[in-house]
Amino acid sequence: MSSQDVQRPVCIIGLGLIGGSLLRDLAAARHSVYGYNHSTSGARTAIKQGYDVTDDLPAILHRAEEDNALIVVAVPMDAVASVLDSIQEHAPSCGLTDVVSVKTEVRQLIVERNMEARYVGGHPMAGTSKSGWENSHTGLFNRAAWVITYDYAAECEARGERIPAEWENIFADVVRMTQMVHAEAVPVRVANHDAAVARISHLPHVLAETLAVVGDNGGILAQSLAAGSFKDGTRVAGTRPDLVRQMCETNAPALVQALDEALELLQDARESLASDKPSIAALADAGFRARTRIEARSGARKESVSPVKISSRPVLRLHPGAPNWVAQLRQTESLGGRIEIF
Questions:
Q1: Distance of alpha carbon 87 from its chain centroid, rounded?
Q2: Quick one: angle between helices 151-158 and 165-180, nearest 10?
Q3: pLDDT tens digit string along 136-190?
Q4: DSSP helix, strand, coil percent of the chain (3-state; round to 5)
């Protein structure tokens, strides 16, 4: 085990697309990793494929407690509370993270259970419209942004309290885990995360569902002529409806604000097209410029917020517990930068 690896075993609770892909990647890296799947058939399939998996939640949590494992909560939002209760009962000293697409509601559940001192939130910006162990695969997180939250550290600092060393160790291991699966760790506070994903993750689901309905309403001819742009725009409408509901409904305030902006733009475009001289110029020009900026930013992931270079990808190298390290996180967050642990 190198200093770049997670310094403890990893226990993954929930082996769908994200949890399953994480287990596959960590196993491929020969790291100690095991997991739980609610689906007995899914667990049996994973076992047959050679993975250390069970459908016995108390047993896997007892094992995690004995190993001082890092627990990854990778279940749908509506199952998070019950999983946290089980962790409290069977693995009361383990550090934990999660991969849920909303962070405010998860952290509220954490706070209610007094688990803040051993929790570091996470959210990999990766996935497909497919779900379940059968759709998980290695390489899903390659170069994907992986949000790492640090609200607990920021709050300790604001109160003038020392950040517990164990929390710093958990934070470091969560970042190391993202490094092991070749993702890019991005420090973000909970509220900022939810506001951002409402715009770039949850709103696209609302628009994709809408576009799919409008296209389908065109009947057989429209369905037959649907090509690349329509299929690209409706891809995430293929996501299971219950998962879409959980993502969007648990982040409703931020999503409503983003949706209001979208509706205003669409209303302006409608009025312009309904005028005596129909035009889509304003929206087309603004959209083109916005897309260009987003593409430039995506290409700028190799640009550094620090002069230190790691391989071909400059990033901010961080040592939790070092002087001003939380201030460095805030600076990196403001720049959308990446971090690595050394």
A1: 21
A2: 150
A3: 999 999 999 999 999 999 999 999 999 999 999 999 999 999 999 999 999 999 9
A4: 55, 10, 30
- Contact between residue 189 and residue 151 where contact means Cβ atoms under 8 Å apart: yes
Which residues is 36 bridged to in the sheet?
13, 54
What three-state secondary structure class fits 3? coil
Judge contact between 62 and 151, C-beta under 8 A.
Answer: no
Cβ atoms 58, 86 nearer than 8 A:
yes
Question: How far apart, in whole angstroms, are the C-alpha atoms of residue 234 and residue 220?
Answer: 17
Find where tokens 């607990």 sit. Answer: 152
Query: 137: number of CA atoms within 13 Å, CB side?
Result: 9
Higher pLDDT, 313 or 217: 217
Q: Find out whether 153 and 326 touch, Cβ atoms under 8 Å.
A: yes
How far apart are the C-alpha atoms of 187 and 333, rounded to whole Å? Answer: 5
Identify the pLDDT of residue 3.
Answer: 60
pLDDT in tens, 9-52: 999 999 999 999 999 999 999 999 999 999 898 899 999 999 99
* Residue for token pair 């690209």: 232
Neighbours of 319 (CB within 10 A): 12
Q: Which of 71, 109, 99 is nearest to 87 (CA)?
A: 71
- At residue 75, φ and ψ (nearest 5 deg) are -110, 165
d(CA 254, CA 201): 12
User: For the chain, what percent of residues have pLDDT higher than 90?
Assistant: 81
Average pLDDT, the chain: 91
Of 13-17, 98-102, 332-336, the range with the lowest mean pLDDT is 332-336
CA–CA gap between residue 329 and residue 337 (Å, rounded) = 9
Give the dihedral sign, CA 113/119/125/130.
Answer: negative
Query: In the structure encoding, which two tokens stand for residue 257, read together?
Result: 């604000």
- Phi-psi bin for 125: left (phi > 0), alpha (psi -120 to 50), beta? beta
Residue type at 331 in one-letter notation: Q
Residue in the block written with tokens 């403890």 = 8
Q: Which domains does the chain have, with CATH numbers?
A: 10-188+303-341 (3.40.50.720), 194-279 (1.10.3660.10)
